[in-house]
Amino acid sequence: MLSPSEFIGQFFIIALLVVLGVFVLVVLIRAIRIIPQAYAGVVERLGRYHKTLQPGLNVLVPFIDRVRPLVDMREQVVSFPPQPVITEDNLVVSIDTVVYFQVTDARAATYEIANYLAAVEQLTTTTLRNVVGGLNLEEALTSRDEINSKLRIVLDEATGKWGLRVSRVELKAIDPPHSIQDSMEKQMRAERDRRAVILTAEGTKQAAILEAEGSRQAAILEAEGEAKARVLRAQGEAEAITTVFQAIHDGRPDPELLAYQYLLTLPKIADGASNKLWIIPSEFSEALKGVGEGLFGASQRAAAASSAAGASSTTPPGSAPIV
């Protein structure tokens, strides 16, 4: 059985070993540091910058090296609240912006600026007021790309020494005063009404032009059809006249027949309810003369034929007629 002094000695040794083990464990924990991907750690040795820890397993000197809060190396998106900006024509507009930036140097972002997020916000506000202050309201509303480009260039140059890189700056909204919005809405409504009236007038004009063009084409086609019909009708009549003329010449009619046909044609000349005056052609007397000669000649020829027949019946056969 141990004496009290021996028991106390063993207890002291066990406690010392436990303390030593805890110390060694703490030393190992503080000597090993694991950095996640896309982060960086700034190491200070005895209060001064020593190195920047990269992602992975890193070994430190316990109780001498101290790791500051990790710096996010990914691209960050920060939306700033609306800022009042006065334009060149003395109108106050509210503009809110979105900035895309990335930390490229953890050491500069830690030691060159106390709070780079607040610095970027204030720098964006002042730069935005400088840029938009030289534009009127209409230019500010229609020149977003130009404003974004100027803001990005100025912010990228100013934040380069802070270990930051500004990739994009976007204007999320530009809100003019309500009175200006009402005026703009009335102006746009009037402009839309004017365009509607112009388009309606252009449509009516185009419709009238097309209708006139269609009527002209229809009239032209109708006239062409009528002309072709007249030509064909004239050709048919010419062919009919030619055929009749040829038939007449082939039949070799005597003057008496022609005079008789002429007399039959005269009533057709005066046919019609509107004919009040009948003018007799000069050839009418010649036709009557021809008809008279024809009838008289026919009667003479008939009498001569009858007399000749009577003489031949009274003369005996074989005897010569008395002259």
Task: Write a structural description.
Its main location: membrane. With 323 residues, the protein is α+β, with helices and mostly antiparallel strands. Strands 2, 3, 5 and 6 form a four-stranded antiparallel beta sheet that branches. Strands 7, 8, 9 and 10 form a four-stranded antiparallel beta sheet that branches. Strands 1-4 form a two-stranded antiparallel sheet. Helix 3 (116-132) packs across helix 5 and helix 7 packs antiparallel against helix 8 (283-314). Strand 8 (83-86) and strand 9 form a beta hairpin. The chain has eight helices and ten strands. The protein is 60% helix and 18% strand. The radius of gyration is 64 Å and the shape is rod-shaped.
Total number of strands: 10
Question: Which segments are poorly predicted (pLDDT under 50) over 5 or more consecutive residues?
Answer: 310-323
Order of helices and strands: HEEEEEEEEEHHHHEHHH
Shape: rod-shaped
Number of helices: 8
Please give the oligomerization state of what you see: single chain
Radius of gyration: 64 Å
N/C terminus separation: 218 Å
Helicity range: 55-70%
Largest sheet: 4 strands, antiparallel
Q: Structural class of the secondary structure composition? A: alpha+beta
- Please tell me the overall pLDDT: 80
The share of residues in extended strands comes to 15-25%
